[in-house]
User: Fold this.
Amino acid sequence: MPWVPALLLVAIATGAHAQSTGQTSVAPDLRECYTNPWLLNRNNLPPTTIQTLIDIIRQIEDNPNVNVDMRTMAALLLHTYRQDGIEYHSRDGVASANVLPFSPTFHSFHRHRLLLRMIPSNLQALPNNTLSAPLKCALHHMLSTTVDARLRGDESSCGQLSQYRALRTSRSVRSVKDDVELLDVSKLRGRNGQMRQYNPNDDVESTGSFGPKRARQLMGDSACPILTGVVKTKWGDVSVGNLIAGIAAGTESQQVPITELIRGSTLNYQNVQTTLTSIFPATLSGDLAEAVLIQGTRGSQIISVGTAGHWNSTQAQRFFMLSERSNVEMTDPEIRGGIDGFVLGNSSAEGLRIYSSLRLSQLLDMYFAPRNGFFNTNLRACNRRNLSLTHINNDALASETRAFTAALDSIMPLEGTLTGGLEGLVQSAITNYQTYTSNTMNDLNCIITEATSPDFRLRTNLYIVLDSSWPYNTIYPAISYLLEAIEVNKYGSSVTLLSAADGRVLINQTLSQSEFHLLYNATTHQSFPTGVNLETSLPNIRQLLLDTLRNESSSNFVGGNSSVLLYLLNSGTIQNNNNVWEQARLLREGVPDTRLVFGTSSNQVENLSNLVRDPQNDVITLTLTSTGTQVDTTMSQVLSTIQMTGRRVVNPLCGANFAAGSSGVRQFDDSVEAGFINFYRVSPNYFYLNNDNARVRVSFGTAGVVQGSLTVCHSRSVILPRQNSTLEPDASAITCQNVVTATNVDMSLQNACNGFSTIGACPPLYFSVQANAVGETTTATCTDVNVCRFPNSIRYQIEVDGLGCFSNATNLLSSVFFVLFGLILNIVRSL
Ligand SMILES: *[C@@H]1O[C@H](CO)[C@@H](O)[C@H](O)[C@H]1NC(C)=O
Ligand SMILES: *[C@@H]1O[C@H](CO)[C@@H](O)[C@H](O)[C@H]1NC(C)=O
Ligand SMILES: *[C@@H]1O[C@H](CO)[C@@H](O)[C@H](O)[C@H]1NC(C)=O
Ligand SMILES: *[C@@H]1O[C@H](CO)[C@@H](O)[C@H](O)[C@H]1NC(C)=O
Ligand SMILES: *[C@@H]1O[C@H](CO)[C@@H](O)[C@H](O)[C@H]1NC(C)=O
Ligand SMILES: *[C@@H]1O[C@H](CO)[C@@H](O)[C@H](O)[C@H]1NC(C)=O
Ligand SMILES: *[C@@H]1O[C@H](CO)[C@@H](O)[C@H](O)[C@H]1NC(C)=O
Ligand SMILES: *[C@@H]1O[C@H](CO)[C@@H](O)[C@H](O)[C@H]1NC(C)=O
Ligand SMILES: *[C@@H]1O[C@H](CO)[C@@H](O)[C@H](O)[C@H]1NC(C)=O
Assistant:
């Protein structure tokens, strides 16, 4: 064994303690994902987006039984849920209860096994009950790279790929050369000298896990095979296995002696460095080595890198289809995941220095964000191309790739034996990787990202009232789009699904997109009550919302999120009459902070406009299609109406009856990211009759810790007030002040409705809290994960005083009574 400094040596998991995901059968805890027909159908699992990935990781982190640091979390995810290369093996109609027709035989499995040894986990794996079965399987498929090349029958819709199909399927005898991943290992045994050196007790053993050649070829017919292990992000589709492995490997950089890694197999190439830095094989070198070995043993001198693909749906992505079926060792998502994983692994030590309790979900949430990034605006997915140049050293990449190629060669079955020329092949792969990354991959860059994404985030309680006469395939993409856009998650919005027939709850309020997607499928959609009846649904929903107000009152809720009731209607002409109008009025007056909005498949503006507050914006015609195309343009008006609904600030005493006295002084904490802005709305129902003390205050809170600089703007006419607004011609309509050292910004509501004869006529108070942009953060400013989404968010306090309760729905006189009563009380006190 070559000499290696003791400090750099890594304890490598021994065969006896090998992880189950490293063994040559499907790991026991993952088997139900392949045996349960419901879980086996990917259409039943949540869509594979970065948002659902972060949602699932957050659920693990929030589990009180899982209390580990970020690196351990990343390593545990790999050891528990990642098992690359699982393939289906045809049984020719013969089924046996004792055989699962899946096993890890695809080429990606071999690298995965080496990786598990290089990224050790002190804890073996997360307990089986950490996640529900569907979320466990969803996470498994997001983390595990494999290619499913079975013929599906929908290949004619591979879009521009249909040309490949004619070419491929016309060939009756397929050359093994084209699809080395489908190789018959029994034929190869002995060809590769290393195979004979397997120790039967070693987890690298692969005997018996390869199906008969005929079976494997039968399934290899798809012109656009499905690549798993991919999630969609705005900045390109990313292989999560590479991403998480890079973070796990980079957070605790390790030097691994090759001889230890391959456990006694001999190296074909001695002329390589003797140790590996784990972050390289975990990310780019791993895929480059696969491409070199597989294409190289086919006789290629040029190693092809990069394979594009696409989702077969614009919303709710579940199937990522490759545009080619050969050279699939280093696909586009694997390249992106490799770069992202490398950059984040390379930067995570610095991130942990800034905030040692950083969570994996926060790291991902910061990097895959339109602004700010991972404590530094450079560290964003939109800047991937620059990052790949600044973080990845070319010489290191070449020599690490050579060494890992040699290691992988000694354990991976191949269709030939490379006897020389390794350096040239590795160089070809790296050159092609570099040109492909800089010339061909054209992901959304930071400039366009910033220009096209809002600088505010939504926190909305969205109630969707669904007309089940929508075809599921038409309405599902629209709802999915909305949930992503309003960011349904622990720190953002919630969604509740109600029936347009009678207003009953179809899906309970949830902050989890994955949970919503699990509950809302084509079957449940079919089971929803049919018809649209505003006369029945409106009063029932009002009761639900009044219930919510009661609950908020008893939990002393002062504000923080907005509330939108969105009807999505498909039925022709909607019955609107006096009774409906009366119900809408009761809703508006009883629940003044909830905005009623209609989205209808045919133009109903005329018929419905008397029900809403802002007829121009609140009745929207939707042209949706069953293919889900253009859903973003169609739904953008709904989105902008939701965006124009500020977060509530309320008098918590009002509850459902709207008959209570002055709020007194009450407050809640909120937070905002650098460069972002939060918008609020205080309804006149809380200040219609004058109270000289009525005000809203923004401050850094009782602790008085100044964390940054905040600007507070307010207006009575501009719904989204901000500083130096170019959109607002009348700048005097907006007043802005800075919250600096321990001073507060007060917005007085004294005589705020003077001259308005009804509550409805008096405009609300609109205000905003904005944090100045910064390029880089060096300290964690908010470490309370219940208040702040990011550790560098700025926390502040909103305090109300002297808010009342005024509603037409209740007797205004009783409100007057409370005001008089308060007045008398004050007089008595002052005597
Ligand atoms: C994991 O949990 C599921 C559901 O409770 C169960 O069906 C499965 O057998 C468990 N797996 C193992 C290996 O215990
Ligand atoms: C995408 O393809 C899969 C696999 O063929 C299929 O089950 C699914 O219905 C397709 N989705 C859409 C939206 O076409
Ligand atoms: C980041 O990567 C570079 C080379 O690619 C390396 O020199 C440096 O030590 C790495 N830094 C960390 C913190 O891993
Ligand atoms: C990325 O690199 C380009 C060209 O070198 C440069 O113009 C751009 O400002 C860089 N972007 C960032 C965010 O650093
Ligand atoms: C909503 O939650 C309640 C209480 O947890 C439960 O009883 C009810 O069945 C749920 N409703 C739906 C539609 O899931
Ligand atoms: C639809 O979702 C429900 C609730 O999660 C589930 O019980 C049902 O099996 C699902 N149906 C299909 C066809 O997936
Ligand atoms: C209000 O709180 C009660 C008791 O906690 C709960 O049963 C009910 O579901 C809540 N209602 C709403 C609408 O949240
Ligand atoms: C949003 O509103 C609900 C009540 O409707 C409340 O329970 C929840 O805490 C609020 N969330 C935030 C983040 O303010
Ligand atoms: C409005 O609704 C009534 C029935 O309630 C219907 O007769 C009328 O055509 C509708 N008008 C429009 C413009 O849709």
Summary: Residues 459, 461, 548, 552, 557, 560-561 surround 2-acetamido-2-deoxy-beta-D-glucopyranose (ligand 8) (CB under 6 Å). Residues 1-18, 160-219 have pLDDT under 50 and may be disordered. The chain has three domains: 6-446, 460-645, 665-830. The longest helix spans residues 332-354.
